[in-house]
Amino acid sequence: MTFSLETGPADARDRLILAHGAGASIESPFFASIMDLLAARNIATTGFEFAYMAARRTGRSKRPPPKAEALTAEYRDAVRSLTKNRKKPSKPVIGGKSLGGRVASLIADELYAAGEISGLVCLGYPFHPPHLPEKLRTAHLETLECPTLIIQGERDPFGSRAEVEALPLSKNIKLVWMNDGDHDFGPRGRSGFTRKGNLAQAADAVAAFVSSLPQPR
After folding, report:
1. Are 96 and 125 within 8 A, CB to CB?
2. How far apart are the first and last CA of the chain?
């Protein structure tokens, strides 16, 4: 596994593994804020980078990210690497920001059926490319069995509230909406809402969801 960061209590009951979005690392303001907020809610979180992002960090490459499907093996390996040395049984929740959440969603049912994870959290899921609502990335979300939380900005260009609520998504997916939020949950100034408030609300929703999932004793 490449570069990673850990936050939260080492002995926490609840563990979360998160991957970054397509263009921003795990040290981006959004990612750092979410990890800090989850730590304050007693969730142990590991943020990790895919190899392409780690290569950007060292200046070796500035190529665009691979397709989500090409990153699934790397995510699967990260989950197994992070859980194999735990002293007590661990069934983490996996997920990520945008691309990271999409990659996690592609392997979620496989790992859930195998008893390796307990759930999935997507922060700003890319339901479609901006301005291309007909190019949906949701076929696998229609039959998803893994308990899933998707937190989405109401006016996210990758899938607004009006667009997403019209989709035939699995009953195992819970949607939580960030007030007037964009892809990073930021509202417009005149909305009366704040990015700080939306991020705190997102962390509350993740904490409630993760703590509701059964864990091995």
Report:
1. no
2. 27
